[in-house]
Amino acid sequence: MMSIGWSRESATPNVSLPDFREIRVDCGRCARQTFLGENLFVDSIYRENILEHSKHPQNKGHLDPYDYAFEDTNPLCGDEIRIELRVDDAGVIIDVAFDGQGCAISQASASMLTEMILGMSVEDVKAMPKDDLLDEVGIELSPARLKCALLSFNVLKASLYGKSVDEELHS
Amino acid sequence: MFDAAAVKRDFPILNQPGEPSLVFLDSGASSQKPQVVIDALVNYYSTANSNVHRGVYKLAVAADAAFDGTREQVAMWLNAPSSDEVIFTRGTTEAINLVASSWGRANLQPGDLVVSTLMEHHSSFVPWQMVAEEKGARFEAVRLTASGELDQDHYQELLAQHPKVVAFTHVSNVLGTINPVKEMTAQAHAVGAIVCLDAAQSAPHMAIDVQDLDVDFLALSGHKMLAPMGVGVLYGKRALLEAMPPYQSGGSMIRKVTLEKTTFANLPHKFEAGTPSVGDVVGLGAAISYLQGLGFADIARHEHDLAAAAIGQLNALPGVTVYGPGADVPRAGVVSFAVDGVHPHDVAALLDEKGVAVRAGHHCAQPLMRELGVTATTRASFYVYNTIDDVDRLVEGVRHAQRVFA
Q: Strand, helix or coil at B381?
């Protein structure tokens, strides 16, 4: 079978073959980028804080009674997260619990998120950008794992707004 | 002796620089491509590209010859009686949708029974479930045994209810189970049912003889067997195909079009509306030649050896559960497993850190996941370019995952 080489004297010299090992992947709308090239295997995403939270999740369980609750599933992997909130008269979150099953990233981020929002007002949580959670998670994630990390965030926002904010998050 | 290390050298993507080297164990999702297939694509687009069945100029004649020649090659490979019974599709999914939509809509009546199984990939499950619902037919699935094989007693119970069609997979994409297609087909025919076989996980790995199996339809994907993405095959028995209405309509599939009436082309063109992916078809031809050069019997034996080694070593690790049949029976090189205390996505991500690419998830088989009582599994699937060293790297990676989560 004949093989045709790439002509260096192309009429369109600006067209070059993509080098997939040099491609960077944007993590959503934040400034983070995941590098798919040489350093792919250098940094583990399973840093101590992730492992600690996934092995010993904070605020895991249920509230009775609760003021807000929502649960959702990541259709890609079947991860499930449920979040329940109790709020005082001033609109401050005085208790929070999450439950569910999933990978270390989704469980650790849920655990971190519950720690972050305890004591915050509902209005502040509604306005909280996802980068606040991603900064706390603190690791570079591929687009697929980003969905794991943001599942709890998505569920939390949905519980406060009473509907899925998936479109807003992924538009 | 099957020389997998030599085979591996034929695949540029597996020989890229960098440490650790890539161990690709996700061929069940899509295989890598050897240089000859890449060359076939480049060669086609560099020397023969033009639309088929239309032109009178030299290039068009070359494209026609390449396209129709590959159809003949596929027919001989599958031992189909005629190349008219070989229809090129985008893949297995489109092939099964063609049958479910065209044959199903024309033949299913309210109250009819459609039989599937709980080990199906969604592409062999959902199209039949949808057409059954549309036509008011019943939809039942054969249960599994504890060892991950089809429950033949349950199959007999369902056959006793005289299904119109039995749609099932040759090889489970999760468990590696090889189903007794020839026996099940004969039993289905005995009660008047037709058989639509999903060969996506078998055709790349073992010799297929459609006349020996006697299935009525068989669907396969090129991209799982070294060919480019974008081409698949539907084999169907001539009498059934001729009686079926077209699936999609438009160019290439007509005989005569007038304001009053359109008549349709003969097989196989009746089911190939629009411009086919000729370059990908040519690539499929190169892939079949490459695999035939290796020999399907040797390929099947090699993959069974790798699966046996993987099952043995994984079972020896405390806290690891392997699903599906053991290596003491014929099985495909698909090995799904669970690691206690580590989610499948984390197993796969930690294996990736060691350069080992595996699948984690529901594998488009949610009814099977439910049957297994899990939401996901980790799956290693082997192919011609995998070596016994790759199995060692897999097992070492699983031990790494266990250490991280210890």
A: strand
